[in-house]
Write the structure tokens for this entry.
Amino acid sequence: MNDNHLSRRGFLGLGAQAGMLGALTALGLLGANPAHAAVGDYKALVCLYMYGGNDGNNMIVPLDTIRYGKYSAIRGSQGLALSVASKTLVSERRARLQAVSDPVDQPFAFHYGMAELDALFGQGQVAALLNVGSLRQPLSKAQYQAGVAVPPQLFSHPDQQLQNQAGTPSLAGTGWGGRLVDLLGTGGELDAVALGGGGLFIEGGKTHGNLIPANGQLNLAGMNFWPQAEAEQRRAALAALLSASHPNMVAGAANRTLLNGMELVSDLKAATGGPALATPFPGHSLARQLKTVAQLIRLRAAQGPGRQVYFVSQGGFDTHGGQAYQQFDLLRQVSQSLAAFQQGLAEIGAQQQVTTFTLSDFGRSLQPNSGGTDHGWGNHHLVVGGAVKGGLYGQFPDFTLGGKDDATGRGVWIPQISNQQYGATLGRWFGADEAMLETQVFKHELANFAVKDLGFMG
């Protein structure tokens, strides 16, 4: 799947996991006002999902002699190997590995399409998480080959999209962002928002996310006419009808949903109708999504303490062929869009309160096919924000085909950092305590990992 829409199979999988509970929750029949832990400040998490499986092996390249030699030999024949000399990598950097038992200095470089993210890394605003993926528990190659605690449906786009957004390989009808908001949100219509395309990440047990267009424009038909005073009277009359009690439970829930939608329209108008952001955003779809997120954050942060989760996305990363240019163009858009977003957050004074992080279906094989790469497993991810402790976290695989890190013999990396550890580190910054994370957000699976906090958040 190359875009940010679930396939029929993925949609059916989501429906099977969510079941009737999710449907009734969406209608408000199981309670729309969950009990929330009190928070004293404002924070937001922004999930950037890279649909199709971004090739992390080319997004961040290790430049130590042994790994880079293997990387060049394996990828060179298909023209996918990148180098500083040919300017297909930005300038070399060196960082001490963190969240590892052996914190050695590691030379590396970002893909040449990510000059803006490289600059943010130099400012300490980017953490790179190495070899992250879907796990139930720490997993050796021997255990993988024996089938011990191996996550189901590896290498499947729709299944891995659901698992990554759920934060667990187990069946789940909710996302870990939505579960965080169940615990810490205020119950407002802007607590969980997806831009352009929906995602399981923002769906909680009681939190139902709102999907809005990328440009933030949403209108109620029949309410835009002249004179404005009469239009407002019509709107008020509709709101009064929807607010009235209804003897039919389903009809009453539908009325409340439409009323909430009317309130959302008002919020969106307030957000996009305020002073224009001075920060220039590129014309990419992702940049438009993030510009709207910045506008919504400006509105919500001004309202006082609370928590928000956002879901934005970029499709096209299923690069079985044509990867050399295609990945460059996609990573260029990601880099430019995130850099503009950080500048926009600085403009509205929210850099410390907002953290953006990436997810993708899976990594891709180190060994290429004809001009591209196949479905993999462990992948590298980026965390961006003013509260981030920049650096490299984890370690690169050893880049040996068939070696201890390779599940299939083609450079398909067994993850060394789990989605649960990744999410729990962000969740702790968001305000969740250890008990919340272990028993409610990550369904008792976080307890399987010795390190619960990877340390990349301040």
User: Anything to note?
Assistant: The chain has one domain: 8-217+276-448. Residues 1-34 have pLDDT under 50 and may be disordered. The longest strand covers residues 42-50. Residues 8 and 158 are 9 Å apart (CA to CA).
